[in-house]
Protein backbone atom coordinates (compact mmCIF):
# COMPACT_ATOMS: atom_id res chain seq x y z
CA UNK A 1 0.00 0.00 0.00
CA UNK A 2 1.41 3.44 -0.76
CA UNK A 3 0.99 6.59 1.25
CA UNK A 4 -1.51 7.63 -1.45
CA UNK A 5 -3.88 4.93 -0.20
CA UNK A 6 -3.69 6.03 3.44
CA UNK A 7 -6.16 8.70 4.59
CA UNK A 8 -4.36 11.95 5.25
CA UNK A 9 -5.31 11.98 8.94
CA UNK A 10 -3.57 8.63 9.44
CA UNK A 11 -0.24 9.77 8.00
CA UNK A 12 2.44 10.74 10.54
CA UNK A 13 3.37 14.38 10.96
CA UNK A 14 6.05 15.64 8.60
CA UNK A 15 9.04 17.76 9.55
CA UNK A 16 11.56 19.58 7.39
CA UNK A 17 15.19 18.72 8.16
CA UNK A 18 18.48 19.66 6.50
CA UNK A 19 18.20 16.34 4.57
CA UNK A 20 14.67 16.84 3.35
CA UNK A 21 11.23 16.18 4.72
CA UNK A 22 10.95 13.21 7.11
CA UNK A 23 7.92 11.66 8.76
CA UNK A 24 7.96 11.68 12.58
CA UNK A 25 6.83 8.79 14.75
CA UNK A 26 3.58 9.23 16.61
CA UNK A 27 0.99 7.03 18.33
CA UNK A 28 -0.57 5.83 15.08
CA UNK A 29 2.74 5.27 13.25
CA UNK A 30 5.41 4.25 15.76
CA UNK A 31 8.21 3.97 13.16
CA UNK A 32 9.67 7.26 12.05
CA UNK A 33 10.76 7.64 8.43
CA UNK A 34 14.52 8.26 8.77
CA UNK A 35 14.76 10.06 5.40
CA UNK A 36 17.86 9.91 3.25
CA UNK A 37 21.40 10.05 4.64
CA UNK A 38 23.33 13.25 3.84
CA UNK A 39 24.91 13.23 0.39
CA UNK A 40 28.67 12.84 0.44
CA UNK A 41 30.65 14.24 -2.45
CA UNK A 42 33.11 12.00 -4.25
CA UNK A 43 36.58 13.18 -5.16
CA UNK A 44 35.45 13.45 -8.78
CA UNK A 45 32.62 15.82 -7.75
CA UNK A 46 34.99 18.38 -6.30
CA UNK A 47 38.23 17.86 -8.21
CA UNK A 48 38.10 18.36 -11.96
CA UNK A 49 41.44 16.62 -12.44
CA UNK A 50 40.15 13.50 -10.69
CA UNK A 51 37.06 13.61 -12.89
CA UNK A 52 39.28 13.82 -15.98
CA UNK A 53 41.31 10.85 -14.75
CA UNK A 54 38.14 8.80 -14.38
CA UNK A 55 37.01 9.87 -17.82
CA UNK A 56 40.31 8.71 -19.32
CA UNK A 57 40.06 5.38 -17.45
CA UNK A 58 36.58 4.76 -18.80
CA UNK A 59 37.67 5.69 -22.33
CA UNK A 60 40.70 3.39 -21.99
CA UNK A 61 38.49 0.45 -21.01
CA UNK A 62 36.13 1.04 -23.93
CA UNK A 63 39.10 1.32 -26.29
CA UNK A 64 40.48 -1.93 -24.91
CA UNK A 65 37.13 -3.55 -25.65
CA UNK A 66 37.27 -2.29 -29.25
CA UNK A 67 40.77 -3.69 -29.72
CA UNK A 68 39.70 -7.05 -28.23
CA UNK A 69 36.73 -7.22 -30.61
CA UNK A 70 39.02 -6.53 -33.56
CA UNK A 71 41.33 -9.24 -32.20
CA UNK A 72 38.39 -11.64 -31.99
CA UNK A 73 37.52 -11.10 -35.64
CA UNK A 74 41.16 -11.33 -36.71
CA UNK A 75 41.60 -14.58 -34.74
CA UNK A 76 38.53 -16.08 -36.32
CA UNK A 77 39.78 -15.27 -39.82
CA UNK A 78 43.46 -16.10 -39.45
CA UNK A 79 43.94 -18.96 -36.96
CA UNK A 80 43.51 -22.49 -38.40
CA UNK A 81 40.98 -24.67 -36.60
CA UNK A 82 43.47 -27.49 -35.99
CA UNK A 83 46.34 -25.37 -34.64
CA UNK A 84 47.16 -25.99 -30.98
CA UNK A 85 49.26 -24.04 -28.45
CA UNK A 86 50.80 -24.88 -25.13
CA UNK A 87 49.39 -22.73 -22.32
CA UNK A 88 50.66 -23.28 -18.80
CA UNK A 89 48.99 -24.81 -16.76
CA UNK A 90 46.29 -25.94 -19.20
CA UNK A 91 48.63 -27.88 -21.47
CA UNK A 92 47.95 -28.19 -25.21
CA UNK A 93 44.68 -26.58 -26.25
CA UNK A 94 43.14 -25.37 -29.52
CA UNK A 95 44.69 -22.04 -30.47
CA UNK A 96 41.53 -20.77 -32.14
CA UNK A 97 39.30 -21.51 -29.15
CA UNK A 98 41.82 -19.98 -26.80
CA UNK A 99 42.13 -16.79 -28.85
CA UNK A 100 38.36 -16.44 -29.35
CA UNK A 101 37.68 -17.02 -25.67
CA UNK A 102 40.33 -14.58 -24.48
CA UNK A 103 39.44 -11.76 -26.87
CA UNK A 104 35.69 -12.14 -26.33
CA UNK A 105 36.18 -12.26 -22.58
CA UNK A 106 38.37 -9.14 -22.57
CA UNK A 107 35.92 -7.27 -24.86
CA UNK A 108 32.95 -8.01 -22.61
CA UNK A 109 34.86 -7.42 -19.38
CA UNK A 110 36.19 -4.06 -20.57
CA UNK A 111 32.72 -2.84 -21.56
CA UNK A 112 31.32 -3.90 -18.18
CA UNK A 113 34.23 -2.48 -16.19
CA UNK A 114 34.07 0.82 -18.14
CA UNK A 115 30.33 1.17 -17.53
CA UNK A 116 30.69 0.41 -13.82
CA UNK A 117 33.58 2.84 -13.38
CA UNK A 118 31.65 5.52 -15.27
CA UNK A 119 28.57 5.03 -13.09
CA UNK A 120 30.50 4.98 -9.82
CA UNK A 121 32.74 7.97 -10.42
CA UNK A 122 31.13 10.34 -12.92
CA UNK A 123 27.39 9.83 -13.07
CA UNK A 124 25.24 11.58 -10.50
CA UNK A 125 25.06 9.65 -7.23
CA UNK A 126 22.25 11.67 -5.66
CA UNK A 127 19.71 9.31 -4.06
CA UNK A 128 16.13 9.94 -5.09
CA UNK A 129 12.90 8.78 -3.58
CA UNK A 130 9.76 8.03 -5.48
CA UNK A 131 6.45 7.26 -3.82
CA UNK A 132 4.92 3.96 -4.78
CA UNK A 133 1.71 4.31 -6.77
CA UNK A 134 -1.09 1.80 -7.34
CA UNK A 135 -0.28 -0.35 -10.39
CA UNK A 136 -3.90 -1.21 -11.14
CA UNK A 137 -5.41 0.58 -14.12
CA UNK A 138 -8.23 3.03 -13.43
CA UNK A 139 -11.85 1.90 -14.10
CA UNK A 140 -11.97 4.29 -17.08
CA UNK A 141 -8.86 2.72 -18.63
CA UNK A 142 -10.25 -0.80 -18.12
CA UNK A 143 -13.56 0.20 -19.72
CA UNK A 144 -11.67 1.76 -22.61
CA UNK A 145 -9.62 -1.41 -23.18
CA UNK A 146 -12.77 -3.57 -23.22
CA UNK A 147 -14.44 -1.18 -25.66
CA UNK A 148 -11.38 -1.30 -27.92
CA UNK A 149 -11.35 -5.11 -27.74
CA UNK A 150 -15.02 -5.42 -28.66
CA UNK A 151 -14.60 -2.87 -31.43
CA UNK A 152 -11.60 -4.83 -32.81
CA UNK A 153 -13.48 -8.13 -32.65
CA UNK A 154 -16.41 -6.53 -34.46
CA UNK A 155 -14.26 -4.97 -37.17
CA UNK A 156 -12.32 -8.17 -37.77
CA UNK A 157 -15.66 -10.00 -38.24
CA UNK A 158 -14.32 -12.98 -36.29
CA UNK A 159 -17.79 -13.94 -35.14
CA UNK A 160 -19.20 -13.82 -38.68
CA UNK A 161 -16.27 -15.31 -40.61
CA UNK A 162 -16.16 -18.67 -38.85
CA UNK A 163 -13.83 -20.23 -41.43
CA UNK A 164 -11.09 -17.72 -40.67
CA UNK A 165 -11.68 -17.97 -36.92
CA UNK A 166 -11.53 -21.76 -36.86
CA UNK A 167 -8.46 -22.04 -39.08
CA UNK A 168 -6.71 -19.36 -37.02
CA UNK A 169 -7.38 -21.26 -33.81
CA UNK A 170 -6.15 -24.43 -35.56
CA UNK A 171 -2.94 -22.72 -36.67
CA UNK A 172 -2.28 -21.31 -33.19
CA UNK A 173 -2.98 -24.66 -31.54
CA UNK A 174 -0.72 -26.61 -33.90
CA UNK A 175 2.19 -24.19 -33.99
CA UNK A 176 3.66 -25.19 -30.56
CA UNK A 177 3.98 -28.75 -31.92
CA UNK A 178 6.98 -27.63 -33.96
CA UNK A 179 8.78 -27.03 -30.65
CA UNK A 180 7.78 -30.47 -29.42
CA UNK A 181 9.18 -32.09 -32.58
CA UNK A 182 12.53 -30.37 -31.95
CA UNK A 183 12.80 -32.31 -28.68
CA UNK A 184 13.75 -35.25 -30.87
CA UNK A 185 17.14 -33.60 -31.34
CA UNK A 186 17.88 -34.27 -27.67
CA UNK A 187 18.96 -37.68 -28.89
CA UNK A 188 17.60 -41.20 -29.07
CA UNK A 189 15.94 -42.57 -25.94
CA UNK A 190 18.26 -44.85 -23.97
CA UNK A 191 15.81 -47.73 -24.26
CA UNK A 192 17.16 -50.72 -22.36
CA UNK A 193 20.82 -49.82 -22.95
CA UNK A 194 21.38 -49.02 -19.28
CA UNK A 195 20.16 -52.46 -18.31
CA UNK A 196 22.86 -54.29 -20.26
CA UNK A 197 26.63 -54.30 -20.21
CA UNK A 198 29.30 -55.75 -22.48
CA UNK A 199 29.41 -58.94 -20.40
CA UNK A 200 27.95 -62.00 -22.08
CA UNK A 201 28.46 -65.76 -21.99
CA UNK A 202 32.05 -66.67 -22.86
CA UNK A 203 33.58 -63.15 -22.51
CA UNK A 204 37.01 -63.44 -20.87
CA UNK A 205 37.79 -61.43 -17.76
CA UNK A 206 40.75 -59.15 -18.58
CA UNK A 207 42.90 -57.63 -15.85
CA UNK A 208 42.52 -53.82 -15.95
CA UNK A 209 46.19 -53.29 -15.04
CA UNK A 210 47.98 -55.86 -17.19
CA UNK A 211 45.40 -56.07 -19.99
CA UNK A 212 45.80 -59.87 -19.90
CA UNK A 213 43.10 -62.55 -19.52
CA UNK A 214 43.11 -64.00 -16.01
CA UNK A 215 43.35 -67.49 -14.60
CA UNK A 216 41.90 -68.39 -11.17
CA UNK A 217 45.44 -68.61 -9.78
CA UNK A 218 45.90 -64.87 -10.53
CA UNK A 219 43.35 -63.97 -7.85
CA UNK A 220 44.87 -64.39 -4.43
CA UNK A 221 43.10 -64.25 -1.08
CA UNK A 222 43.00 -60.74 0.33
CA UNK A 223 43.58 -58.85 -2.92
CA UNK A 224 41.08 -56.78 -4.86
CA UNK A 225 41.43 -57.21 -8.62
CA UNK A 226 39.70 -55.11 -11.26
CA UNK A 227 38.61 -56.56 -14.58
CA UNK A 228 37.02 -55.49 -17.85
CA UNK A 229 35.44 -57.52 -20.65
CA UNK A 230 37.71 -58.90 -23.34
CA UNK A 231 37.78 -56.69 -26.45
CA UNK A 232 37.20 -53.38 -24.66
CA UNK A 233 40.27 -51.21 -25.21
CA UNK A 234 41.04 -47.81 -23.71
CA UNK A 235 41.31 -46.14 -27.10
CA UNK A 236 37.83 -47.33 -28.09
CA UNK A 237 35.41 -44.51 -28.82
CA UNK A 238 32.88 -46.02 -26.41
CA UNK A 239 35.38 -47.02 -23.71
CA UNK A 240 34.21 -44.63 -20.99
CA UNK A 241 30.54 -45.37 -21.64
CA UNK A 242 31.05 -49.12 -21.53
CA UNK A 243 33.50 -49.34 -18.64
CA UNK A 244 31.14 -47.18 -16.56
CA UNK A 245 28.75 -50.13 -16.66
CA UNK A 246 31.00 -53.17 -17.06
CA UNK A 247 33.80 -52.48 -14.53
CA UNK A 248 34.22 -55.54 -12.34
CA UNK A 249 35.98 -56.32 -9.08
CA UNK A 250 37.13 -59.78 -8.09
CA UNK A 251 38.03 -61.16 -4.68
CA UNK A 252 38.81 -64.64 -3.50
CA UNK A 253 37.02 -65.76 -0.36
CA UNK A 254 37.27 -69.16 1.31
CA UNK A 255 34.16 -71.02 0.08
CA UNK A 256 33.25 -71.80 3.71
CA UNK A 257 33.08 -68.06 4.43
CA UNK A 258 30.55 -67.39 1.69
CA UNK A 259 27.17 -67.06 3.36
CA UNK A 260 24.90 -66.58 0.37
CA UNK A 261 24.04 -69.80 -1.49
CA UNK A 262 23.47 -68.20 -4.90
CA UNK A 263 26.68 -66.25 -4.50
CA UNK A 264 28.52 -69.52 -3.96
CA UNK A 265 26.99 -71.03 -7.10
CA UNK A 266 27.93 -67.97 -9.18
CA UNK A 267 31.52 -67.98 -7.96
CA UNK A 268 34.47 -70.14 -9.03
CA UNK A 269 36.71 -71.71 -6.37
CA UNK A 270 35.70 -68.88 -4.00
CA UNK A 271 36.39 -66.15 -6.57
CA UNK A 272 33.42 -63.78 -6.65
CA UNK A 273 32.89 -61.04 -9.25
CA UNK A 274 30.84 -57.97 -8.45
CA UNK A 275 30.09 -54.72 -10.22
CA UNK A 276 32.62 -52.10 -9.20
CA UNK A 277 30.03 -49.32 -9.59
CA UNK A 278 28.50 -48.21 -6.29
CA UNK A 279 24.72 -48.46 -6.22
CA UNK A 280 24.45 -45.11 -4.46
CA UNK A 281 25.47 -42.56 -7.10
CA UNK A 282 27.93 -44.58 -9.15
CA UNK A 283 31.42 -43.99 -7.72
CA UNK A 284 33.96 -46.76 -8.37
CA UNK A 285 34.46 -48.91 -5.29
CA UNK A 286 38.14 -49.21 -4.53
CA UNK A 287 38.74 -50.33 -0.95
CA UNK A 288 38.59 -53.86 0.42
CA UNK A 289 39.07 -55.17 3.92
CA UNK A 290 40.34 -58.74 3.82
CA UNK A 291 39.36 -59.87 7.33
CA UNK A 292 35.74 -58.74 7.16
CA UNK A 293 35.31 -59.06 3.34
CA UNK A 294 33.90 -55.54 3.32
CA UNK A 295 34.21 -53.36 0.21
CA UNK A 296 34.01 -49.63 0.82
CA UNK A 297 32.95 -46.86 -1.56
CA UNK A 298 35.16 -43.82 -0.92
CA UNK A 299 32.52 -41.29 -1.93
CA UNK A 300 29.97 -41.60 0.87
CA UNK A 301 31.25 -44.66 2.72
CA UNK A 302 28.68 -47.19 1.60
CA UNK A 303 29.97 -50.57 2.74
CA UNK A 304 29.14 -53.89 1.09
CA UNK A 305 29.67 -57.35 2.55
CA UNK A 306 31.20 -59.38 -0.30
CA UNK A 307 30.82 -62.62 1.67
CA UNK A 308 27.08 -62.13 1.93
CA UNK A 309 25.77 -61.26 -1.53
CA UNK A 310 27.43 -57.80 -1.40
CA UNK A 311 24.50 -56.54 0.65
CA UNK A 312 24.74 -53.01 2.04
CA UNK A 313 25.75 -52.99 5.68
CA UNK A 314 26.42 -49.26 6.01
CA UNK A 315 25.91 -46.01 4.12
CA UNK A 316 23.42 -44.51 1.71
CA UNK A 317 23.50 -47.16 -1.05
CA UNK A 318 20.08 -48.74 -1.47
CA UNK A 319 20.99 -51.99 -3.25
CA UNK A 320 23.47 -54.82 -3.08
CA UNK A 321 26.14 -54.83 -5.79
CA UNK A 322 25.11 -56.93 -8.81
CA UNK A 323 27.10 -60.16 -9.10
CA UNK A 324 28.46 -61.55 -12.36
CA UNK A 325 28.33 -65.30 -12.75
CA UNK A 326 31.77 -66.62 -13.70
CA UNK A 327 33.49 -69.87 -14.59
CA UNK A 328 36.57 -71.04 -16.50
CA UNK A 329 36.81 -71.96 -20.18
CA UNK A 330 38.57 -74.98 -21.68
CA UNK A 331 41.89 -73.16 -21.61
CA UNK A 332 41.58 -72.36 -17.93
CA UNK A 333 40.81 -68.65 -18.24
CA UNK A 334 38.11 -66.94 -16.19
CA UNK A 335 35.07 -66.13 -18.27
CA UNK A 336 31.62 -64.62 -17.74
CA UNK A 337 28.66 -66.96 -17.89
CA UNK A 338 26.25 -64.18 -18.86
CA UNK A 339 25.48 -60.51 -18.21
CA UNK A 340 24.59 -59.06 -14.82
CA UNK A 341 21.05 -60.09 -14.05
CA UNK A 342 20.10 -56.59 -12.84
CA UNK A 343 21.11 -53.02 -13.77
CA UNK A 344 24.42 -51.91 -12.31
CA UNK A 345 25.03 -48.64 -10.53
CA UNK A 346 22.61 -46.20 -8.96
CA UNK A 347 19.03 -47.22 -8.40
CA UNK A 348 17.65 -44.68 -10.90
CA UNK A 349 19.08 -46.75 -13.78
CA UNK A 350 16.43 -49.34 -13.01
CA UNK A 351 13.92 -46.91 -14.42
CA UNK A 352 15.95 -46.35 -17.64
S1 LIG B 1 28.57 -43.25 -4.47
FE1 LIG B 1 29.16 -44.83 -3.18
S2 LIG B 1 28.43 -44.26 -1.29
FE2 LIG B 1 27.81 -42.65 -2.55
Automatic annotation (TrEMBL):
Q: What is its main location?
A: membrane
Q: Name one Pfam family in it.
A: QcrA_N
Membrane topology term reads:
Multi-pass membrane protein
Q: What is this protein called?
A: Cytochrome bc1 complex Rieske iron-sulfur subunit
Protein's organism: Streptomyces edwardsiae
Q: What is the lineage of its organism?
A: Bacteria, Bacillati, Actinomycetota, Actinomycetes, Kitasatosporales
Q: Which UniProt keywords apply?
A: 2Fe-2S, Cell membrane, Disulfide bond, Electron transport, Iron, Iron-sulfur, Membrane, Metal-binding, Oxidoreductase, Respiratory chain, Transmembrane, Transmembrane helix, Transport
Q: Where are the transmembrane segments?
A: 58-79, 99-119, 163-183
Q: Tell me where on the tree of life, at the top rank, the source sits.
A: Bacteria
State its location(s): Cell membrane
Q: Where is this region: Disordered?
A: 1-39
Amino acid sequence: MSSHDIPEENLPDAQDTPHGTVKLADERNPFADPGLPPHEHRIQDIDERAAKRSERTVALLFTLSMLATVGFIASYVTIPVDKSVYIFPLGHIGALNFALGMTLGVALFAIGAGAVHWARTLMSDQELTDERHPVEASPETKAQVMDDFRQGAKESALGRRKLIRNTMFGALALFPLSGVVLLRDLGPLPGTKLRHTLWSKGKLLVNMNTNEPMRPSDIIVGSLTFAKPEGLEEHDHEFQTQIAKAALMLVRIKPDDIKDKRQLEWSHEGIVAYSKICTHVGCPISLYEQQTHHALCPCHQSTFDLSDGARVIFGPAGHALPQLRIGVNDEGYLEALGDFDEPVGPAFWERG
